[in-house]
Structures are given as C-alpha cells and as structure tokens.
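Hi, here's the filled form for the chain we discussed.

Project: internal
Contact: R.S.
Residues: 269
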Amino acid sequence: MPRFAANLSMLYNEYEFLDRFAAAAQDGFKAVEFLFPYAFAAQEINQRLNDEGLKQVLFNAPPGNWDAGERGMACIAGREKEFQTGFLQALEYADRLQCPNIHVMAGIKPNHATPELLVETYCANLKWAAEQAAHMHCNVLIEPINVRDMPGYFLNYQAQAHDLVERLGLPNIKVQMDLYHCQIMEGDLEMQIRKYLPTARVGHFQIAGVPLRHEPDQGEVCFDHLFDVIDQVSQACGWHGWVGCEYRPARGVQPNATREGLTWFNQRG
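And the returned structure, exactly as it came back:
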C-alpha cells in the first residue's frame, strides 16, 4: 500500500495549525506535509511531530510574497539573492524537522522574460539549491502545476520537469508528481506513472480528486486503481517515497470534516 502523508495546509482546517498534527495521527497518518512552516518556530513544529510520532516529509521553500500573488522566485532573474536567502531558511527548518524534501516553486513567468532567460535562471537556482541541500542529504523537488489553478506558472508538464532534471544531472533534484495537476494538464495517469516512476527522478506524489480538488474518491479519476499501479511499479523499481494528500475536504471546515472524508484512506489501511 502507498504510504500516505496528510497535507496539513489542506486537511484538518477545522483545527488550529499546530493541533492538526494530533488529529492526523489519530486518524492513522504516519507522516505529514504542508506548504510553509515559517509562521511557527521549528522547535514548536518538531515538538508536535515528536509528540505524535509523525515524520515530516515535505514543505515548500519561501515563495516570495504569497499574499501578493507570487508563487516562487526560481525562474525570475534578479531575485537570486532573495531566493538563496529563502532556501537557506528552508534548509534550517528541514534540518530541525529531519525533512528529506523541499519543494522549490518555480514562479509566475514575468511578461518581459524570454523562454531562454527563464530556463537559464531556473536551472542556475536549482543547481545552487541542490548543492546546498546535498550536504544535508535533502532533495530539491520541482512540481508541474496546472494553468487553471495557477495561470502563468513556469512549470506545467511532466516531460518539461523530467527533461530539466535530466539536464541538470544532480541526483537530489527530483520531480514532485502531483496527479491532480497532471490529470488537468495531460491525463493518461497510469502511463505517466509507469513511464516516470522507474527513472529515479520522482521524489514524491500528491493526490486530489479532479476537478474540484476534494477527496480522491470523488471526481473523474479512479485513484484506487492508481494506488495499485504505484504499489506495483514501486515494488518493481524499489521506490520508497510518500503520497501527499493535498486536497480540500468536501465538507469544508465543519467539525470532523476531514475525518468524515477519510473512507478512502481507511479502506486502504
């Protein structure tokens, strides 16, 4: 069975953030991920992880001004120093939380930037980040994101991401394969998994029902089948990563909204 991590930015919003760790553990999760930890001291988060026996498996590097619509800086020329400062902060958190993966968001493409400049800037920033992270045995993840949810985002397709990883040739740069985004942009999910998972370039999966980003047992994708595919391919190629549950509970933030939507998870347990 795939190993599932609760995304605490999306799930358990009926609780305050630091209380979500206990709720996830009570429901049987062994690991968590979230978008950003920086509003809390690493010590506070680490204490919650230790108290609940949870692993931290993923979070994002600082994205710039999120509230102003920024979604990362890695592809944006002229923001290199800010990118580096933010990534070093992420590494400090990763060290304290013993987190093996940091997602680096590419950013929204500036109107004036040429495709060549975007790729050059992105690759240079990823290479620098991977070199810093290698000293801590930490992976730098990049994620193709759909243009409906994030118009103008630089990285949209699996082949685009895998080609960049192969081009950079650094073993700790990997692809965060979000099947929700992949379905919206490309589809053919089983074949995508079978093509890319054996390459050793996939560092992490994420899931959500399509098109409304609710529980994975809702919508147009048969995730139960895809979990079996991930199991089968993982056993064949020796992949041991996590599947992040990055969806919004259909019941919103009403009491027990997340727990009541975990039928799909309990059936896999």
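Let me know if anything looks off before we file it.
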